[in-house]
Task: structure prediction
Amino acid sequence: METSKKRSECPLSCSLDVFGDKWSLLIIRDLIFYKKSTYNDFLKSAEGIATNILASRLKTLEENGIIEKSAHPDSKAKILYRLTEKGIDLLPIIMEVYIWSDKYYEMPVALKATIKEAKKDKDKFVKQVTKELKIKITEKKQHLIE
Result:
């Protein structure tokens, strides 16, 4: 893993160096909520990320242990990206941003329903989504062993 020079000892500053730009957060969002897992999946996101930016952000996220990549089972030309446990641990932060955004911005109906569900019991919601994401990691490890 490549280590980057810290700008300061501030935990917020150090964390933002890893996942604080908008593109990295959107990639993490897509992995968590939209089940995207390939380079082309991310390119098709509504925000319209440029290919060079996408490649750079995926590399940074991988180097910092937020995501991992593996071979695609159906195509040697494709790579699959998945969150690591470290990446999954960003879910509560992402949910707090969603809840804050719901307070100040219009939301699509389906997303509003998800946020409403999360707000009822944030801990339960985060635990459930985390469990689902970790099952995928376990399945991946099992597949590699076989």
Notes: Residues 11-145 form a domain with the Arc Repressor Mutant, subunit A fold (CATH 1.10.10.10). The chain is about 65% helix and 5% strand.
